[in-house]
TrEMBL record, chain A:
InterPro entries: CAT-like_dom_sf, Condensation_dom. It comes from the Bacteria. Pfam families: Condensation (PF00668). Residues 24-303 form the Condensation domain. This is Condensation domain-containing protein. SUPFAM superfamilies: CoA-dependent acyltransferases (SSF52777). It comes from Microbispora hainanensis.
From TrEMBL, chain B:
It comes from the Bacteria. The lineage of its organism: Bacteria, Bacillati, Actinomycetota, Actinomycetes, Streptosporangiales. It holds the Pfam family PP-binding. InterPro entries: ACP-like_sf, PP-bd_ACP. SUPFAM superfamilies: ACP-like (SSF47336). This is Acyl carrier protein. It comes from Microbispora hainanensis. Residues 1-79 form the Carrier domain.
Amino acid sequence: MNVTGPTPYVEFAGPGPLTGPPTAPLTWGQRAIWEAIVRTAPDDRYFNFGRVLKVPGSRTVAEVCAALAALMARHGALRTRMSGALRTTMSDAFRATPAEPYQRLAEKGRLPVVVTTEDPDRVLDELAARPFDYFGEWPVRVALVLDGDRVAHVVLVFCHLAADGLGAEVALRDLRMFLLRGPGVRRPAASQPLDLAHWQAGPEGRRAAETAAAHWEREYRRIPPTMFSSPSGSPAEPPIWRALLRSPALELAVRSVAAEHAASTSTVLLTAVTELVGRFTGHETCAVLPISANRFRRDTTDIVATMSQEGLFTLDRREASFTGLLRAAGPAALRAYRSAYHDPADRNRITASVSAERGEPIHPYCCFNDMRFADPGPARCDPAEITAALARTSVTWPMSQDKLNCRFCVHLTTEGVSLTADTRYLSRPDMERCLLELEALVVEAALR
Amino acid sequence: MIKERLAELVAESSDGAVTADEVLAATVPLSALGVTSISMLRLIDAIESEFGVEFDLSDDGMGLLDDFDRLSAHLASTASR
């Protein structure tokens, strides 16, 4: 990266002395991500993600650093690192049985800031390219991109233990406000991960956790042990690949089907993906793990934290038509979203006990992540327009890597629908076929 | 009174996509009014905290949630217990 001048630091401090200890157990969301990180290391940079904020008005480096200090003060997640009694270096964290880590909030610190003139998207990729030192480093990396002597863009790369996509949006919104209205602007206090961890461990949190756990246990007793269990016979090198379907026709068709069936576009796609999983694996009962935002409680809507977790969505296909599946999918999706707000310790316990009971490991290894921030929403579309749009469909292969803690991951983004799969269980030609059949299924339902 | 309060909770949960008046006047299920699944989850959480009840999300329980009149009657009967 073309770095301009010496690295400035943002000196930050929390809003005041804490009322309780600066440590707490991990929140459910942190623990879920931590387990995924440990399973994915050394490819755990996979979980890093970032945002580019176009700086409003004309701001100097010092002004942007002041806004960043206000952001760090406001959101405890950005001052929180992992801690563990026995833990001193990164490699220890990945040894067989690391001591149970916990979170530690720092009252103050210094955040290094890169100042550069490079393209912001490239800067983002560079900042996200290496894994975080979860125990030593602040969970956000920042670069300021200059245009002359003013800051044009702020690039933020988040450690997934500190924020998920929606949490990052909240941080960006607050940073923008500090830039516009000054770092001293008064705001109602923000919810904090330490408080959330205490709530989750308290009686209300345990009640929510038990409801969720009951769903996991009931469904784990009846679903196939894993969705993609047969070798594909044609593994690729490296084994993990991502295929990206860009399909304006699918976008229109999804909106149309959602309008027709009073469903969300997300539920339509989740149902279609589940049906495709069934077709490619032969399972009648299919289990998919949708990532749920878990921001439905009033005190978590605007928290900068990792709230998103996997829920358990199950659908019995039998001979049901796609319309029949959609009807069943509404309540099934709600049950899945509720099960997403769970304590991973409960889920681990249930996984172990049901796996022992059934005599084989139970895990769907099949997930679905709707990462769109702006859902275009249900809307009836002209069938002729949908058919015409089919000519603009494309499939590309934007990524490959060695390790992933899943076998079949569908991501919905504004770019399209991507499928990241383990080619040892689903070959690259089948991945492409799966995406195109997904398009065909929904388009056909829309044109019916 | 429960009906009015419930309609307010639906409006809050939907971030204003549906108003309390629309809920009270509606003759169709909440889902047909445009209450999305995330709004429905917020509503479930709000009702559970405010009325001290717990929803079972079986198909039956879901039918109850989607039917505003049945839901109000159910909460009224729970509250008077």
